Prior knowledge:
heterodimer; A: MetI-like fold; 10 helices; 0% strand; B: mainly alpha; MetI-like fold; 3-stranded antiparallel β-sheet; 77% helix; flat
Amino acid sequence: xxxxxxxxxxxxxxxxxxxxxxxxxxxxVGLTLGMSQLEPLFRALFPDLSQPLYSRDSFLNLMLAHxxxxxxxxxxxxxxGVAAGLFVTRPAGREFEPMVSSLAAIGQTFPPAAVLAIAVxxxxxxxxxxxxxxxLYGLLPVIQNTIAGLGTVPASTREAxxxxxxxxWQILWRVELPLAMRVIIAGVRVSVIINxxxxxxxxxxxxxxxxxxxxxxxxGNNLAYVIQGALLVGLLAIVTDLAFERLERRYTFG
Amino acid sequence: xPREHTPRVIGNRVLLxxxxxxxxGVALLPFATLSPNRLVSGQPVMLWQALPGWQLGALGLxxxxxxxxxxxxxxASRTACWLGLALxxxxxxxxxxxxGDYAQxxxxxxxxxxxxxxxxxxxxxxxAAALIAVDALQxxxxxxxxxxxxxxxxxxxxxxxxxxxxxxxxxxMREFAxxxxxxVAQGLRHLALVGGALLPALALGLPLGLVATRSRxxxxxxxxxxxxxxxxxxxxxxxxxxxxxxxxxxxVPWLGELGVSGIGVAPAIIALxxxxxxxxxxxxxxxxxxxxxxxxxxxxxxxxxxRQILWRVGLPLALPVILSGLRxxxxxxxxxxxxxALIGAGGFGAFIFQGLGQYAIDLVLLGAIPTxxxxxxxxxxxxxxxxxxxxxxxx
Lengths: 254, 395
């Protein structure tokens, strides 16, 4: 393929990707606000159920609670994770790099659901243990990718920046971080997607999320609740993942 | 860089940091908790209240040795690492022994319903021992096999403490004794679910990975479909499979008689296979695509057929990458199986969610700890397998 054809192919794919993202976002918002309009549909699908629509809370509230859980924990994960990754790649913290790297690797073998369960004896039930578990777990991919991303910056590039008279801070802000950004964002993407899934299970430890109707449906044998929760949380994950894909592409150079 | 040459007072700042963190934790957190019965939350018991004098003395000696290992520098740094590594085993052993010993003494004086549980300082000491060992092993640059031997030694020590009656008075171990039969059954169920998902995932994923190397169009389509499954929250996939499977079992009665239904094992295995496919396919593709073109050319020049080239050249060279994919999916499947307990598939997750429902922390730990141990051990074993599968000369 010629360079021009490759380029036009990439542009076309990006355009269809944008369209998919826009349509799915529209569907997500539409379903969140208009799920109650679908009550006749669920009533037809599940004629045996006396209550075919989850009504203990609005789906908008559940969606906002879910996004809130993920947003708060991701903000903690990203700020602590990037800071830790930066610390262990500077001369002052380099001695800690092997330890932090292997902690991040071993920690990711822990099942997220088990981490969530272990947070309960530490912090009780509700919002707090979920936030603790999500932030701790989400930290690991961010640290790992921050270290990996900064590691991809060639020493010669750093040397050239130093030769141009840039200070250590300037090199970090203007050279290293922009070059490492794509890999760091990939780590944030992994972390956020895992957290959207774990926040769903968070309803078993008493945190309100889109998992609330899902788990209530599983416990109470109400398949309609299960489908309503699963659809919304699945769509949320796909839309978020596609959005991050766009973001990553923006930081691809060359 | 001039910074490297400035004399450093401290030999091992990582070890010193761990030492300080453990010391602060032990000073602030209880070593154990004592409660009059299993429903009431316990009274905190600090380390110095729980341990008799000789145990405190022994712990002090270990701490002093570790501090020495952290501060020593210069030529003795390797010796210091060995010292730190050697001290982690007595630290581990003493921490476990001290908790069991305290529980025994405390319960001898208390009512029969009283319970002793482990506290934050106990976990912190175990964690510190593990991290100090990891740090020392990294600094000594020991081979993977030597690290495996050390891990085996530590696991043997923990196993011996669990097998003896030492820890039996603990609340957690009493819960275990009550549930021993169910525990074994759920553990086997957990392993069976993981194995039952991995076999079909490999049987499907390896050929699909091969297809991906042959056609770009197939590859792009396959990867984007499988990627969607990896993105979906596991509980949503489990939930969405219930209705179609229940309908299927209803429509095709012999499937229902085989045990296929909306909840339980069938949706769990299907979801686990769907999740496992992407890493298997991706790594099979990456491994085969990574075989150098010159090697394939040479094989063709020797007169090998394309089937021979695949079996004798491509697959052996791709094996380490394929096994790395297996490592990812095994660890992932062990974790996802926890969630499968929510749709009645059983496994260790059943303890977790039952415990969360009854606010029975011991039950939660009885499910969570074995799952984590299982995942870490599986990860380590497969790491050894990946290393062993590398062709000689590239290890």
